[in-house]
Amino acid sequence: MKRIFWKLTLAVPFIAGVSLASVGAVKAEDRPSFTPIPEEFGYFRENRALEAAIAAGDAAFSRRHGWSLFAGMMQPLDAGDPNSWPIWLSWQTTAQAFDAPKPAAAAPMRIRLTPSVVGHMRASERGADIPVNTPQPIYPLPRKVIEAYPDAISGTGEKATIKDGTFFVFNGDIMVATESLSPEGFRAIRDGELYLKKTLEEAHRLGQNIELPARYLSTKHMYWPVHAEGLTPLPWWNDNFPDSYNGYVGYETWDSVVAIDPSGKQVGQTVDVTYLHGILNPDKTAMKPKTAKARVVGLDRFYHHKVTNADWKMFSEADKAMLNAASYWLYDAPFKPGDYVVTVAMHIVTKEVPTWTLQSVWWSDAPDKGPYAADRPQDMKAVGPWRHYLLTEANAYKPDAQGQIAKAVNPYIEGVIHPIRTSCRNCHVRAGYPGGKPGEPAEGTTGYSNANCPDLLAALQPDDACFKGVSLTDFSWIIPDRAQ
Fold this sequence. Notes:
Radius of gyration: 22 Å
Number of domains: 1
Helix content: 10-25%
């Protein structure tokens, strides 16, 4: 069906001529100059072939494209620097995109909208057989972090959290997260004033869905802190739980662990490691630090970066607080210049095709085993250890006879928030406004799961009846989640 677009003028405040470096209180001036994905990695160069492959059910093509996107954005910013950050570090963050604007005179602005047409209920109406809100461990902010970085802390007591940083956003656990946007994605949010809740409210009042540009690209990347000296434990997903398991599956529960040795002197040995400090069980009792046997691996198996004194000066107080909180929780010691961060997981979401591409990668100590190792390009000239990662993707293939799509989940990212028998496509198609709240009627709201749209592996479509009364935000959860 042909997609219909039009523009609507809304009388809401607008900042004319906003630039990528001029937004808000985040220190954008310290960010490296924007560097795009190199052309040879296929971003926005294989759109027609990718759309045809998805229509034909050719997952191998989609997976090769996903591998290329991951390797491409992990290429070094400075090819001559062995300790270079990856190119995505030069991209604007969601914290900057959703930073509140300075007061300005009201002026007309334009956002791209598409009609909110609700059709018949094509998705399965089975019950919510997958519980979503599984009990999770609690990570209280370490007292030493609160005392060292008071200006980076928001809230007090049990509600204390860390503010957005220049580069990192707080994930609430050991993983140090970044959320990055393509320039077109950043401008769509800023110029369309999608950072304002009243923009979403107006679209909702008019019965409209948000339409994002074709070059919209967003990522969520996870770093793991690694001490420069000694061994740093890292749990890794080794199919620790069957697909049917519906309980909590965060990394705290995994039995497979490696120990990262930056010196390389103990690589190949098996050692005892202890990790997880100052963490509470869901019932708020103290969690005992975990001890495990771990095989020692080197830094060469990871995308990694040694944090320099120059980096430390570039980081905001919030960035430093996040690194330190993660470090205390992991090995009960502070993070400092000279220590490392290693890539453990990454989501990549693009609109290269109208139905979006969704791919996600994670580190593995068994990177050549299983279906998630399949279809790596054999001739790709990419710097770095991208072959030590696994990849899942959830493009718009036809569902099975029961209307179900395949499971697609990143164990590092999803495991800490919901069960593994889910799909990133089923999740992202739900993105919209307003969001539902526990105990409130589900009709006219959206969310990861509600009584209207309960099935987490259903092949949902934007015009399914369970989205009636919702203004969808075009596969982007950051818009309804962050709009102020």
